[in-house]
Amino acid sequence: MELAGKKVLILVEQLYNEFEFWYPYYRLKEAGAGVTVVGSGSARVYTSKNGLPVTVDTAAENVAAAEYDGVIIPGGYAPDIMRRHAAMVGLVKTCAAAGKLVAAICHAGWMLASAEIVAGRTLTSFFSIRDDLVHAGARWVDREVVVDGNLVTSRTPEDLPAFMRAVIGALKSPSPALPAGGQNPK
Description:
The structure is a single chain. The protein is α/β, with parallel strands linked by helices. The chain contains six helices and eleven strands. A seven-stranded mixed β-sheet has the order 5-2-1-6-7-11-10, sandwiched between helices. Strands 3-4 form a two-stranded antiparallel ribbon. A two-stranded parallel sheet has the order 8-9. The protein is globular, with a radius of gyration of 14 Å.
């Protein structure tokens, strides 16, 4: 159990991408991490773009980021809804400031921009939000996964294997933050 003792938050909202939620959820559990599913507080059950439900463990306002090793933000249209909730944005911002893992895939870059943690960082995302991230100060690149310090980003569900290798590598790292510079894990 390579992640035994690690605790990770996964954020969710209506219209989440089911692959980008469930693949990390089960991969982290398989590796031995404790996973807490966090919603905005607007519902107890959220539905994916294709109608797959997920029940949250708690609302963002009830979570102390200091008790966790990182946060994963799935894409879909959910990040656009998540960023309307200050407590969800605050979790991402607090984790980033503490050097904890912040992992975002696809449209989840919207949450990174709203948390104001992308300026000067190298990252990737779904191509359609590139301009949003660039305008927020990010250096955007088209790669399956980008690691810049404690920030791990990927583009689409097809990138999930590389994304999760980078996420697990970051959580296994003895230091709270990875080296900066937009490096790709092997």
